[in-house]
Amino acid sequence: MPIINLGIQIVPKSKTLDSYALVDKAIEVIQQSGIKHIVTPFETVMEGPQEELMEIARRVQEAVLAAGAEEVLVYYRMQIRKNSDVSIEDKIGKY
Predict the structure, then answer these.
(1) Separation of first and last alpha carbons in the chain
(2) pTM for the full model?
């Protein structure tokens, strides 16, 4: 199973709850998954098998809705290679 990178940006919508607190719930799900990830100001990038990352992404959106968001916008970006793994380290390790 090839290793890919999946960037996920969560934009929760709520008239009464703080958006950052809702995003924190999303990041908490990713952290608890144990998957390799990097949190940035605009998205969180995860590294792993595509099926596992998509399952984590589904749990993330469910957690944000369960925390009280009325709606959630979810943006994905994926890097997938045909014959080799994709690594966060390959892209940013030199920094």
Answers:
(1) 28
(2) 0.93
Task: Tell me the two tokens of residue 39.
Answer: 């949190």
- Concatenating the DSSP letter of every residue in 34-75 gives T-EEEE-SS-EEEEEEHHHHHHHHHHHHHHHHHTT-SEEEEE
What are the phi and psi torsion angles at 48 (to 5°)? Answer: 165, -170
Q: Is 55 inside any structural domain? A: yes
How far is C-alpha 39 from the geometric centre of its chain's CA atoms?
A: 9
Q: Which CATH number covers residue 40?
A: 3.30.70.930
CA Rg value for the chain: 14
Q: How far apart are CA 24 and CA 22, in angstroms?
A: 5
How many domains does the structure of the chain reveal? 1
Reported as a single tens digit per residue, the pLDDT across 49-92 is 999 999 999 999 999 999 999 999 999 999 999 999 999 999 99
Residue 52 lies in a domain: yes
